[in-house]
Write a structure and sequence with these properties.
The chain has 4 helices and no strands. It is mainly α. It is elongated.
Length: 105
Amino acid sequence: MSTNAETQLGPDHPALAELKELRGSIDNIDAALVHMLAERFRCTQRVGVLKATHNLPPADPAREERQIERLRDLAHKANLDPDFAEKFLNFIVREVIRHHEAIRR
């Protein structure tokens, strides 16, 4: 099955080799992200158990605020849009809190 690029450029176009190489790297990065997120959520599940065991609230707004500031700074230094990084972290935090609430129940 040919890709849009192969159809548009032709199967022997020199740009296709570089495109395939870059896409291979993107695929590897995506796989690493999935594994890193899985590990992160394994850790946060354990945090949820600790919080439930010691009757701590599922959310920690002060920590979340520090983490957002930290992540925005890291994003800025990495030339990544800090707003995007904050949205991404907020999504993760919402999921973590949802998991912690479920563990508590």
